[in-house]
Specification:
This protein has 129 residues and is α+β, with helices and mostly antiparallel strands. The protein contains 2 helices and 7 strands, in the order E-E-E-E-H-E-E-E-H. Strands 1, 2, 3, 4, 5, 6 and 7 form a 7-stranded mixed β-sheet that branches. A hairpin with a 3-residue loop joins strand 5 (65-77) and strand 6 (81-92). The longest helix is centred in the middle third of the chain and has 13 residues, at 49-61. The model has no long low-confidence stretch (mean pLDDT 94).
């Protein structure tokens, strides 16, 4: 049986030399539960990447972001689905974000990113930064 394929977008939010890292909620899927990721989510049918990223960040963090250039995309196969994860360089809005869909958030410099336990797909993206 062919696995479901999902297009996902994520925001590489940079503030000075630090990147915004988000800790996922607890899940029954061990490969994503409480691991770290760059914020974002699924692209819905009829939506472009920019629209999806702005919508997802608004829904998950009540935060307006400015989406910039595409940094790259990776493909990854999880046990029950495959994803194409596309990353965009973003700038945060004027207000503070909220943690509606995450346990924690950290701003880390590039050299400290590997101190976190990342989802497999997001770990691949770090190499693009």
């Amino acid at each position: 049986m062919e696995k479901k394929h999902i297009n996902v977008v994520c925001a590489i939010v940079k503030d000075g030399d630090k990147f915004l890292c988000m800790q996922r909620l607890r899940s029954h899927k061990k490969y994503e539960s409480e691991l770290w990721e760059f914020p974002g989510g699924k692209v819905k049918e009829g939506e472009n990447d920019y629209e999806a990223l702005i919508r997802e960040i608004k829904e998950e963090m009540d935060w307006d972001i400015f989406v910039g250039k595409k940094l790259g995309a990776i493909d990854h196969e999880y046990p029950d689905y495959t994803i194409t994860l596309t990353a965009y360089l973003c700038r945060g809005g004027e207000t503070e974000y909220k943690l509606f869909s995450h346990l924690d958030a950290k701003w880390l410099t590039r050299d400290k990113l590997n101190t976190l336990r990342w989802t497999d797909a997001d770990r691949k993206l770090i190499d693009l930064l």
